[in-house]
Design a protein that fits this description.
The protein is α/β, with parallel strands linked by helices and 577 residues long. The chain is 34% helix and 12% strand. Helix 3 packs across helix 9, helix 4 packs parallel to helix 5 and helix 5 runs parallel beside helix 12. The structure holds FE2/S2 (inorganic) cluster. FE2/S2 (inorganic) cluster binds next to loops.
């Protein structure tokens, strides 16, 4: 039996040793049938798996991991799969976002503490994607992302029904008395009918597209349905490629450059993507060390057209997007229009332009040409004003055009409990010209910055056939949601931001063209109100809740924890004996 070879990769600090500790590191791994010759210095590839039956969108990840493993073996690597905290968007309370940073810490420490030379990140449901990218970026090892893929289109009574988007529409129909509960239950059984994540251009599909646009995933990563054989091919190819990336020392920081983030912002506008991507991209950039400001999203993205006709901004679903050509067809349009950094390096070792310059489009109803877009100037807009000194965002492509300039009387809900208590009350003094204001739903306030910003409208307004009103909050909204909804107002109410000082009857002016969000109350009156302001009670004063509330940054900084912004690299910790 030969001795292990000379150390080369970081895993050799564990497996390439001839001392007592080398015995320990290898011997226990051999219990699962690993032969001695596998410790010959070949790249050890971690497969970071967010499988969980509590995360329905990721429940097929054991199969995907098997394909990745096969790819790693194909290329002569040594695959070792490991679990990390999984975040199921539909299950976790008070909100999955509260745990994004916790999961990212799990990922970071799991990679650094183990004999891992490169990692394949398996993500799908909304927060799993940023959590894994953030954690791996803080280690800056070679990494490649594999998304789990969207579900097949929902089908109900011959019609397409989209994840989330259809839920918001149908629940408003029930509240307006137009949809019987039996229909509601039936639709619920027809919406999600295969493995995969939400199949609208919600946050999961948006982040899968960001993975592709950033270059940290392979071409085609975003759109192949979870149950399409090509999803498994992508997984296997990623397994093969990560072995080469380790040999090339192609670390995340060589891919996640400023140009890559600008490409992601450009793609975000072109797909009509989720507002949540603003927070997640900012947080990922913060980990890898790229400076990204809220204004970058407006400056780069807001004047770009939306090319993709997908719910919630449009009509179609991810399955249609796949058959139309997927993100490669969008990136080709952007490159031809001269708005893409074509030289940005991607995980397969080629530039983003080399990957996408010949990508075909098969359906112009789904993916529009840049010079004949689906919607003009549709990227996310960043608002400022005395109500949002550190910014707020709105997605004009999902808003009602006539409400983008609006002045109205504030109807204030102090927190989400107050909202639920009063919104269905017929005596609530509100009509469609009012501005609904929701406080204490930001990072510290909820806590975790819940997707509560797309407040349901009052029934008496819905009965008039009105489907949208101006809404302002420090919350996020689901990427599948829509409406004239101002989100991420910073500083948040619970941190003493001006939002905390809004009172019923105040006048609020929204002017998206001027990027303005203004509270028509004098500075002197706001100072008086601030002197009387008391912060909301803290929900739990121990454990992770406390750590989070004490250290979370505001939305414009990515809502990361202040002490984990940045990276520590992949230095090998001291031995455990
Ligand atoms: Fe998982 Fe929508 S609930 S992606």
């Amino acid at each position: 039996m030969s001795e292990p070879k000379k150390p080369k990769f970081r895993s050799a600090e564990w497996f390439g040793r001839t001392d007592r500790d080398g015995f320990i590191y290898r011997s226990w791994v051999k219990n699962r049938g690993v032969p001695h010759d596998q410790f010959d210095g070949r790249p050890v590839i971690g497969i970071c798996n967010t499988f969980s039956e509590l995360t329905p969108c990721n429940s097929h990840f054991r199969t995907i991991a098997d394909y990745v493993k096969q790819g790693v073996l194909d290329a002569g690597g040594f695959p070792l799969e490991f679990p990390v905290m999984s975040l199921g968007e539909t299950m976790l309370r008070p909100t999955a976002m509260l745990f994004r940073n916790l999961a990212s810490m799990d990922v970071e420490e799991s990679i650094r503490a183990n004999p891992i030379d490169g990692v394949v990140l398996l993500f799908g449901c909304d927060k799993t994607t940023p959590a894994l990218l953030m954690g791996a970026a803080s280690c800056d090892v070679p990494a490649i992302g594999v998304s789990g893929g969207p579900m097949l289109s929902g089908k109900w009574r011959g019609q397409d029904v989209g994840s989330g988007t259809g839920v918001w529409q149908m629940s408003e129909e029930v509240r307006a008395g137009r949809m019987p509960m039996a229909d509601f239950f039936e639709a619920e059984s027809c919406m999600h009918r295969s493995h995969g994540h939400c199949m609208t251009m919600g946050t999961a599909s948006t982040m899968a597209s960001m993975v592709e646009a950033l270059g940290i995933g392979l071409p085609g990563n975003a759109a192949f349905p979870a149950v399409d054989g090509r999803r498994n091919v992508i997984a296997r190819l990623a397994g093969r490629r990560i072995v080469e990336m380790v040999k090339e020392d192609l670390r995340m920081s060589r891919i996640l450059t400023r140009d890559a983030f600008e490409n992601a912002i450009t793609a975000l506008a072109a797909i009509g993507g989720s507002t949540n991507a603003v927070i997640h991209l900012t947080a990922i950039a913060g980990r890898i060390g790229v400076k990204l400001e809220l204004e970058d999203f407006d400056r780069i993205g807001s004047r770009l057209p939306c090319l993709v006709n997908l719910q919630p901004s449009g009509h179609y679903l991810m399955e249609d997007f796949c058959y139309a050509g997927g993100l490669p067809a969008v990136l080709r349009e952007l490159g031809q229009a001269g708005v893409l950094h074509k030289d940005a390096l991607t995980a397969n070792g080629k530039t983003i332009w080399a990957n996408n310059q010949d990508a075909p489009c098969y359906n112009r109803e789904v993916i529009f040409a840049y010079d004949k877009p689906f919607k003009a100037a549709a990227g996310i807009a960043v608002l400022r004003g005395n109500l949002a000194p550190d910014g707020a965002v709105i997605k004009p492509s999902a808003a009602t055009p006539s409400l983008l300039q609006h002045r109205g009387r504030a109807v204030v809900f102090e927190d989400i409990a107050d909202f639920h208590k009063r919104i269905d009350d017929e005596s609530l003094d509100i009509d469609e010209t009012c501005v609904m204001v929701l406080k204490n739903c930001g990072p510290k306030g909820y806590p975790g910055m819940a997707e509560a910003g797309n407040m349901p409208l009052p029934p008496k307004v819905l009965r008039k056939g009105i489907t949208d009103m101006v809404r302002v909050s420090d919350a996020r909204m689901s990427g599948t949601a829509y409406g004239t909804v101002v989100l991420h107002t910073a500083p948040e109410a619970a941190a003493g931001g001006p939002l905390a000082l809004v009172r019923n009857g105040d006048i609020i002016e929204l002017d998206v063209a001027k990027r303005r969000l203004h509270l028509e109350v004098t500075d002197a009156e706001l100072v008086r109100r601030k002197a009387d302001w008391k912060g909301p009670p803290q929900h739990l004063a121990r454990g992770y809740y406390k750590l989070y509330v004490d250290h979370v940054t505001q939305a414009n900084r990515g809502a990361d924890l202040d002490f984990i912004v940045g990276k520590s690299g992949a230095a090998v910790p001291r031995d455990n004996h």
